[in-house]
Amino acid sequence: MEKPEFIVVEGPIGVGKTTLAKKLAHSFGSELLLEGAADNPFMTRFYENPKAVALSTQLFFLLQRARQMQELRQADMFNPVRIADFLMEKDRLFAELTLDEDELKLYEQVYDQLTIDVPEPDLVVYLQAPVEVLLGRIENRGIQHERLIEAAYLQRLSDSYVDFFYHYSDAPLLIVNAADIDFANNENDYQQLLQRLKSINSGRHYYNPQPELI
Q1: Which residues are annotated binding-site positions for ATP?
Q2: Residue 62: which of 20, 9, 114 has the closest Cα?
């Protein structure tokens, strides 16, 4: 794959998807789309009391992501490479975790209207790591509302990602064990992942790098 037009990096909270998306955008000289969780005014209240604002939180993200996807379709065709740290379909994954039955029915009606003709990625990079690793990274980056995330919720979210990508077949997929690599600070880790990514143009692939021995 010399120059894919649309790469998506995905994975649960704390796995490093935004960091990797930014580095890939720099390497490809491409446009970057970030999901902007910090812009969601309901986030802190959601982690304090999920049931009270789950629908408001989810609809904000849905509207935000749908708008970004429409902007992507209308973007400059002379700079075709784009990197995103979210897959549109993952919005439903969160909705199914957090909404009750009636809320989910309402959400799905809005989702179906907003996601017509959403562009499909040329490659999806799915980052995985154990919950204890995710919790450690969340703690280290120090985002205030994320400190309220409970391990049980993060485990359910991680399990949902595993199930989602087990059945995913809409684009070439690279599944990366991100537990023992540091592509944020270790350039060798990042370059090896980049080369693996560039070699993929179809199918499902796995990348399980081993930590460097000192």
Answers
A1: 11-19, 137-141
A2: 114
Asked if 103 and 50 touch (Cβ cutoff 8 Å), the reply is: no
Binding site listing: 11-19, 137-141
Catalytic site residue from 39, 85, 102, 122: 85
First CA to last CA distance, the chain: 33
Residue 203's contacts (CB-CB under 8 Å, 6 or more residues apart) are: 172, 173
Structural domain count of the chain: 1
Give the tokens for residue 82.
């784009």
How many Å separate Cα 166 from the centre of its chain? 16
Residue 85 appears among annotated catalytic residues? yes
- Convert the pLDDT of each residue in 167-183 to its tens digit: 999 999 999 999 988 88
**CATH number, domain with residue 141:** 3.40.50.300
User: Is 214 within a domain?
Assistant: no
For residue 4, what pLDDT is reported? 64
Taking the CA of residue 193 as centre, how many other CA atoms within 13 Å lie in the half-sphere pointing to its CB? 28
